[in-house]
Specification:
Elements lengths: L5 H13 L4 E5 L8 E8 L8 E2 L7 E7 L2 E6 L5 E7 L7 E4 L4 E6 L4 E8 L9 E2 L11 H11 L4
Antiparallel strand pairs: 1-2, 2-9, 3-10, 4-7, 4-9, 5-6, 5-8
Length: about 160
């Protein structure tokens, strides 16, 4: 049995806060070759996740908000927003499944936000994510501006 409790969430959140990227994964799957990837994704506000999709091989991805609030945004291939939601367990909005071949990003809206993430495996860094060319790359100038612009456009607080 693997226990997911506040002690684990606090530990992973603390690691995210001290990470230059503002996020930290805690994997439950044993190896990248596992056919079901399961992890905690602790993410702090304004940590930038470049919009991406999972195709060739196609993979679905599921996010459940365990703590905090998470904006999940989907895009078409040109970068226009096609849908979004804010996961907020206190409001009864717990999770979302993103279909394969769908550009998406997540944004933490509160400190100490933690998502439980499930994705088809196996994981290979070579072909896991196909990043959107219409969005800044992680680490480039403009990531914070891009994120704030998305939040303003969608009226996300």
């Amino acid at each position: 049995m693997i226990l997911i409790d506040n002690l684990l969430l606090d530990r992973v959140s603390d690691q995210a806060k001290s990470s230059p990227r503002g996020r930290k994964n805690y994997n439950f799957h044993k190896a990248p070759a596992d056919t079901l990837q399961r992890l905690l994704n602790a993410i702090e506000p304004l940590s930038y996740v470049q919009p991406h999709k999972h195709e060739n091989p196609d993979k679905r991805e599921v996010f459940f908000a365990l703590r905090g609030r998470i904006a999940v945004i989907e895009f078409d291939d040109q970068g226009s927003v096609t849908g979004h939601t804010v996961l907020d367990p206190l409001k009864g909005i717990f999770g979302v499944e993103v279909a394969e071949r769908t550009f998406h990003t997540i944004i933490a809206l509160e400190k100490d936000t933690v998502a439980y993430e499930v994705k088809d495996g196996p994981y290979s860094p070579v072909d896991d994510k196909h990043f959107a060319i219409w969005a800044p790359k992680e680490g480039e100038d403009g990531c914070t501006v891009y994120t704030r612009r998305l939040m303003e456009q969608l009226n996300i607080e």
